[in-house]
Amino acid sequence: MIDELLPPEVHCDVAFGDPPDAVLLTEEESLVEWAVPKRRLEFTTVRHLARSALARLGYGPVPLLCGEHGAPLWPEGVVGSMTHCDGYRAAAVADARVIGSLGIDAEPHAPLPDGVLDAVSLPVERTHLARLLDSHPDVCWDRLLFSAKESVYKAWFPLTRSRLGFQDAELTFHPRERTFSALILPSGHDSARTTGATAKKPPEGLVGRWTVREGLVVTAIAQTQAT
Q1: 43-80: b or e for each residue (b if 16 or more CB lie within 10 Å)?
Q2: Are 118 and 125 spatial neighbours (Cβ–Cβ below 8 Å)?
Q3: How many CB atoms lie within 10 A of CB 139?
Q4: Which fold has domain 2-103?
Q5: Domain ranges of the chain
Q6: CA–CA separation, 126 vs 72, rounded Å?
Q7: Alpha-carbon distance 93 to 17, whole Å?
Q8: Any idea which of 40-44, 127-131, 157-161 has the lowest mean pLDDT?
Q9: What is the bridge-based pairing of β-strands 88-95 and 99-108?
Q10: pTM of this prediction?
């Protein structure tokens, strides 16, 4: 599903479970040394998928370790993103000369637990979601918002090397086109300026796509170098 939301320049591999041939490389073992079995399986599968996708870019098997704030460390010249939830795993990679950043996320298509929406959304977004729910009651808009914000953060961090909180971006959904736009608020830009880890001007916003199918909410952003 995520592959359908991304441009052809992005290589994506998905799985609806944990294939028995998925294994970690030696360098990755310590990252999940104390993880529960479920977490270890998810971690292993998304890296297995990422290596499969990287092979189509011409890369051999490489360890995918964790860097700052847990972000995956991709080979030089590659951008990528990974996600997993119950029953679904995915990894996407692309040539960094073509795609500037990627962010993907998958979640179960079910309402968020009580209290979570208030913690991850802005008042204007909650008003927006209420209107969407009236016109499109078949979509769990609160879960879709959460997923889209996860994709926004994953795409933002490689561009700025700065964190982006749930309150630092205002999202708007476009049901007919199945797209969403994220306006990065001043607090998000202030964080990027404070970090100062990149010479490039951060984008004012990001645009992504979404779908709801097979019990899942899926969101994706591919920020091209041209934008």
Answers
A1: bbbbbbbbbbbbeeeebeebebeeeeeeebebeeebbb
A2: no
A3: 18
A4: Ribosomal Protein L22; Chain A (3.90.470)
A5: 2-103, 105-224
A6: 31
A7: 20
A8: 157-161
A9: unpaired
A10: 0.93
